[in-house]
Design brief:
Blueprint lengths: L4 H13 L2 H8 L3 H15 L4 E2 L5 E2 L1 H24 L7 E7 L1 H19 L1 E7 L5 H6 L5 E4 L8 E15 L1 H7 L6 H6 L2 E3 L6 H10 L8 E3 L3 H9 L5 E4 H9 L4 E2 L6 E10 L4 H18 L1
Helix pairs in contact: 1-2, 1-3, 1-4, 2-3, 5-12
Pfam families: HTH_1, LysR_substrate
Family: Belongs to the LysR transcriptional regulatory family.
GO molecular function: DNA binding; DNA-binding transcription factor activity
Length: about 300
């Protein structure tokens, strides 16, 4: 069975844009024509590909198709440049990463490679325990995740471990933890949590103090700079990557309130076994840079 190019483009446009109307604008068609092409491919494959909600999303079969189409696009762009014996056109690569990786080491590590290879990043940011699902859904060609096992057709390479420490302002420590991080104290002291997917603080409190979710007060601050600022302002304590806290700690704005209890989070790079040459080189560059920084 051979996939129809126009029908495949229609499915890809609908899923990426989130609606038939937006896909029609991208493809210079009417929404009705886009819908006809999507339905034709669904009939050919014998399975629904798009859940017609707002925004539209891929079914499990649509996710598998999306994975395939994104990889084909990447391979085609590199092949065209190679056959034409010309400088490679910019290649956009969709990657899913966690916020702490993006805000600390990813861009400085990859910038020389991206400039040299003329690659464009299309980044999706999610919790490190959830980026894997974006790769699985076909929304990324690679991801940085805590998941160690690769899904079918992919490789998973360990990048290293990000070390987190429990940090607070000196005034906050004096107010809440003058006698240390006792169980009674951590039940009362506010904690800063990045978002409701963030399990770092919850797992720490469960492991060391036996406290379950809801047993302590929380702020939710879903932006890295604001998260650090909230801790420095004394609104609560939170877990901060060692790679990010250097300047604030040196200035005395943050102090380690549990120096004997760091938390190490292992990170893995997931990518497809079959991918374009430039994507292969990106995987190698990212892995090498991460291992130098993360250890």
């Amino acid at each position: 069975m051979k996939l129809d190019i126009r029908q495949s483009e229609a499915v890809l446009a609908v899923i990426e844009s989130g609606s038939f109307e937006q896909a029609a604008i991208v493809l210079h068609l009417t929404p009705s024509a886009v819908s006809q092409r999507v339905r034709a491919l669904e009939t050919t494959l014998g399975a629904p590909l798009v859940v017609r909600t707002r925004p539209c999303r891929a079914t499990p079969a649509g996710q598998r198709l999306l994975q395939y189409l994104r990889r084909v696009q990447s391979l085609e762009q590199d092949l065209q440049a190679e056959l034409a014996d010309s400088e490679a056109a910019p290649l956009s690569v969709a990657i899913a990463v966690n916020a702490d990786t993006l805000d600390s080491w990813l861009l400085p590590a990859l910038a020389p490679f991206l400039l040299r290879e003329r690659m464009l990043l299309d980044l999706s940011v999610d919790d490190q325990d959830h980026t894997y699902t974006l790769l699985e859904a076909g929304l990324a060609l690679g991801c940085i995740s805590t998941e160690a096992l690769p899904m079918r057709g992919c490789n998973a390479e360990m990048l290293g471990k990000m070390r987190y420490r429990c940090m607070a302002s000196p005034d906050f420590r004096a107010q809440w933890f003058a006698k240390g991080m006792t169980r009674a104290a951590v039940r009362q002291a506010p904690v800063i949590v990045f978002n409701r997917k963030d399990r770092l603080q919850a797992d720490f409190l469960l492991k060391h103090y036996g406290l379950t979710d809801g047993a302590y007060p929380c702020h939710y601050v879903p932006a890295s700079e604001a998260y650090m600022q909230a801790i420095a302002l004394g609104l609560g304590w939170g877990m901060v990557p060692e790679l990010q806290m250097g300047a604030l700690q040196r200035q005395g704005a943050l102090v380690d309130i549990a120096p004997q209890r760091p938390t190490d989070v292992a990170l893995y790079w997931h990518s497809w076994k079959v991918q374009s040459p430039r994507m292969e080189r990106l995987s190698k560059a990212l892995t090498m840079a991460a291992r130098k920084l993360l250890g």
